[in-house]
Amino acid sequence: MLDLDAVGVGSNGPQGEDAATVHGDRKLGPCGRGCARGGLGVKRRAEDETRSESVAPSLQSDLIARICWYHFREGQTQQEVADRVGLSRATINKIISDAFRQGVVRISIDSPVAPCLELEARLREKFRLRDVVVAPSPVDEDNVRNSVGIATGEYISKTLLKDQILALSWGGTIYSAAQSLKPRSKAGNVIVSLSGGLARSTIINPYDNAATFAKILDAECFYMTAPMVADSRATRDALMRSTPIRVVLEMVAKADIALLTAVDLTSKTWIIKHGALTKDMLRSLAAAGSVGGVCDQYLDAAGGVVDHPINQCAVAAPLDVIRKIPHVVLCAGGAFKVPIIRAILASKLVHSLITDERAAALLLKA
What is the spatial distance between Cα 135 and Cα 7, in angstroms, rounded to a whole number? Predict the structure, then answer.
């Protein structure tokens, strides 16, 4: 029997606090530097078997740990791992060989955030997701938007390629995601907001969220120049037919990635204090069977859009348009958001999920 315990390796071998391990029963436990940095390896590139990369000294320890996890814990072949992380099979073989040679494999867990990778793997399998990132849950759940947001910003920094279009939702987690985006310049990116805006500047205003992303990414930005919720369905329909909004919707249809978050209807929601909806509106939505919203559409527990005036009056990209975007990412965490996260997953709207440990565990319970 193999003794397997993958310890994060940098240019000088095992790295102490970055330790990532595999149990004797082959449960690996690295989460990189605190899970929020981890998640998904590198962007997949076309495989070229004739390519012969060397293992760069700067190769991140969390990526090495994940390669060991994918091979030993999930039972993937070296070729499958290579396809997954965008390296050649020869490079994967060398990384695994070096892991044994350097004593990277043993039978203890050194990381306090060991469960994160296993949660990611189980969520990916249960909900048939492309990518999952599980960030550590904060002691105070009120700070979960920041924890998940940091992981989201780092994920988008790795995933959004040059010249790609990012369609953007709004909310506190989106605001926090901007704080950990890696700044870039002249990369040809475009940010397009998926929703109308609020009358005043707040950290959850779609205008402000999109503008912040665009500034950090040096990107062109498209806004929906309309209120988030129109006064009537007739007004909403007229706005959606207007040239400025049709131009934005055309950009949404061209998007490469969409980043969404979830709106809960609990006492912890931010949409009341920031003026997106009123308490009466929330009560009315709950009475209609809604468990929360995504991109200004409020869903029931099964992922269906509820029959409610707010859904009929929302000025936002239709979910059917968002569903056609090649990669739709949901970032949302906290036990209080589990019902709406589950509903969004049931709707088959998203391909990838970024959440926290507490929410991940609850999602796996049923």
Answer: 19
Contact of 63 with 15, CB cutoff 8 Å = no
- 172: tokens are 């506190």
Give 234's contacts (C-beta < 8 A, 6+ positions apart).
none
C-alpha 84/C-alpha 67 separation (Å) is 9
Helices (H), the chain: 61-68, 78-85, 89-101, 115-127, 144-159, 172-179, 206-217, 233-241, 243-253, 279-287, 309-313, 319-322, 338-346, 357-363
Q: In the structure encoding, which two tokens stand for residue 166, read together?
A: 């990012």
Tokens, residue 320:
């059917």
| Arithmetic mean of pLDDT over the chain | 81
CB atoms closer than 10 angstroms to residue 43: 11
Residue labelled with tokens 């919203």: 293
* Structural domains of the chain sorted by starting position, each given as residue range(s) with its CATH number in brackets: 9-101 (no CATH), 115-363 (3.40.50.1360)
Residue 254 has pLDDT above 90, yes or no: yes
138-176 confidence digits (pLDDT tens)? 888 888 998 999 999 999 999 999 999 999 999 999 999
> CB-based burial of residue 266 (10 Å sphere; 0-12 exposed, 13-18 middle, 19+ buried)?
middle
Q: How far apart are CA 190 and CA 258, in angstroms?
A: 12
Triad 114, 115, 121: Cα angle to 5°: 120
Task: Determine whether 224 is exposed, middle or buried from the number of CB atoms within 10 Å of its CB (0-12, 13-18, 19+).
Answer: buried
> What phi and psi values does residue 75 have, to the nearest 5 degrees?
75, 20
Q: Give tens-digit pLDDT for 78-128.
A: 899 999 988 998 998 888 877 766 655 443 334 444 458 889 999 999 999
Assign 205 to helix, strand or coil.
coil
Q: Cα(first)–Cα(last) distance of the chain, in Å?
A: 34
Q: What is the secondary structure of 38-106 as a DSSP string?
A: -SS-S------TT------TT--HHHHHHHHIIIIIS---HHHHHHHHT--HHHHHHHHHHHHHTT---
